[in-house]
Amino acid sequence: MELIIFLSLLALGYGFGRHAEKNHYRTIIAREKVLNNLPVIATKIIPTSHSQHGSNLVMGSVVISVDYFKRFAAVLRSLVGGRMTTYETLLDRARREAVLRMKEGARLQGAVIIFNIKYETSSIYKGRRNAIGSVEVLAYGTALIPK
Amino acid sequence: MMITNLEIVPGKKISKHLGLVQGSSVRTKHVGRDLMASLKNIFGGELKGYTELLQESREEATKRMVAQAEAVGANAVLNVRFSTSSIAAGAAELFSYGTAVILD
Question: B47 and A71: CB-CB below 8 Å?
Answer without folding.
Answer: no
